């Protein structure tokens, strides 16, 4: 008996919950980025606005942190990718026992907590700078340099793992054949091994860039007085959030979608070129169609669409809507005040009709809660007999002996 799978109500419900959990926060952030409310919220909806994107770009600390993150990320890519490639090649040339030992050494930085890496980076380079007599304005105490070095110590291991996975599919007899035919080791590496590793190089570069950009645990210690985009964003969230962070999420989502669509166009084009003549002619036989489906064309069209949407957003004026919302809030506030005044008037009218007078409120800040603790008025004191004037102003009058 054949059983159908994947179509039950339970599976459908699970899939809906899964996608709601996965994409729900993204949808909410996209909506809140265009709500004029000063606090990120979906309801109640006030006015459609794009002003939060301007607030985001007008934040000098975030923009400076973004620039620092880009500089550090590029530096990490330029250093971590060659180190990871060297480590992967070394592991591929060693025996099993020595390979296991070296692999353990190279992979250990990933297992070390980021806090430990950050503090150890500061301590090591600070001690090294003091030992050579370097001042505090040298690179040994520079936050950008320390962050770059601190991130490379563990991000290079990520790149190495990518290269190891790629080298497992490489046939070493290709380089051996090239060497037998008279090629030098450098030529064999450049002509054979490097083209084979090209996809892995791109993947490792992208992975290391993202790992550097989003790192916080190590960076928060090594950046010193400077800030990266991640640390600046974290400090902004601690001090109070606003929809400008939702605008940032919209930008990140847009960049991700554009990259995914362009990559899909590139992949399909490569598959079409590798397929038979019929498939190639069906897609690229028409020159116009070939231009439209080209990844560069897709990228230009998507960027043009984003530019048009951004321009349209700047042309929208939410001032009238925001003023209307403000007037409604003021009217509602005045209505509540009038209702309160009416209740006071009704209460006074009821008191006058029944002859009951409400005790006036105490002027005390505590509502008269401590009035019962006030001391009772003392009885008038009997006038004391005047004493002879003293040279000490009467300071020792109480020491005088009592008269019988």
UniProtKB/TrEMBL annotation:
Domain ABC transmembrane type-1: 66-263
Protein name from the UniProt record: ABC transporter permease
Keyword Cell membrane appears in the UniProt entry: yes
Places the protein is found: Cell membrane
Positions with biased composition (Low complexity): 374-391
Residue stretches of biased makeup (Basic and acidic residues): 341-351
Keyword Transmembrane part of the UniProt annotation: yes
Phylogenetic lineage: Bacteria, Pseudomonadati, Pseudomonadota, Alphaproteobacteria, Hyphomicrobiales
Region (Disordered), start-end ranges: 341-404
Transmembrane segments annotated in the record for this chain: 12-34, 66-91, 103-128, 140-167, 188-211, 245-266, 287-311
Top-level taxon in the UniProt lineage: Bacteria
């Amino acid at each position: 008996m054949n059983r159908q799978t994947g179509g039950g109500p339970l599976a459908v419900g699970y899939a809906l919950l899964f996608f709601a959990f996965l994409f729900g926060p993204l949808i909410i952030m996209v909506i809140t980025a265009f709500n004029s409310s000063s606090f990120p919220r979906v309801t109640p909806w006030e006015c459609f606005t794009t002003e939060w994107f301007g607030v985001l770009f007008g934040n000098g600390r975030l923009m400076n942190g973004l620039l620092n993150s880009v500089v550090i990320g590029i530096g990490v890519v330029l250093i971590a990718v060659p180190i990871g490639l060297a480590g992967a090649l070394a592991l591929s040339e060693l025996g099993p026992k020595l390979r296991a030992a070296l692999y353990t050494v190279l992979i250990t930085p990933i297992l070390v907590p980021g806090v430990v890496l950050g503090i150890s980076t500061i301590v090591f380079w600070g001690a090294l700078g003091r030992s050579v007599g370097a001042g505090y304005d040298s690179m040994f105490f520079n936050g950008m340099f320390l962050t770059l070095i601190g991130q490379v110590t563990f991000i290079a291991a990520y790149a190495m793992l990518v290269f190891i996975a790629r080298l497992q599919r490489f046939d070493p007899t290709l380089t051996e054949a090239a060497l037998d035919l008279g090629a030098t080791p450098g030529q064999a590496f450049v002509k054979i091994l490097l083209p084979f590793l090209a996809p892995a190089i791109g993947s490792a570069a992208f992975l290391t860039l993202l790992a550097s950009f989003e790192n916080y645990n190590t960076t928060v210690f090594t950046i010193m007085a400077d800030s990266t985009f991640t640390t600046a964003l974290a400090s902004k969230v601690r001090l109070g959030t606003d929809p400008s962070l939702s605008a940032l999420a919209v930008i990140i989502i847009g960049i991700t979608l554009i990259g995914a669509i362009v990559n899909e166009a590139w992949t399909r084009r490569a598959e079409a070129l590798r397929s038979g003549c019929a498939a190639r002619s069906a897609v690229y036989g028409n020159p116009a169609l070939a231009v439209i489906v080209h990844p560069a064309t897709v990228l230009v069209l998507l960027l043009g669409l984003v530019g048009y949407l951004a321009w349209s957003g700047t042309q929208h004026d939410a001032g009238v809507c925001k003023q209307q919302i403000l007037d409604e809030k003021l009217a509602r506030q005045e209505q509540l005040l009038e209702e309160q005044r009416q209740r006071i008037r009704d209460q006074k009218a009821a008191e006058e009709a029944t002859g009951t007078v409400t005790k006036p409120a105490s002027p005390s800040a505590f509502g008269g809660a401590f009035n019962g603790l006030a001391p009772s008025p003392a009885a008038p004191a009997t006038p004391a007999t005047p004493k002879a004037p003293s040279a000490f102003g009467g300071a020792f009058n109480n020491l005088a002996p009592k008269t019988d």
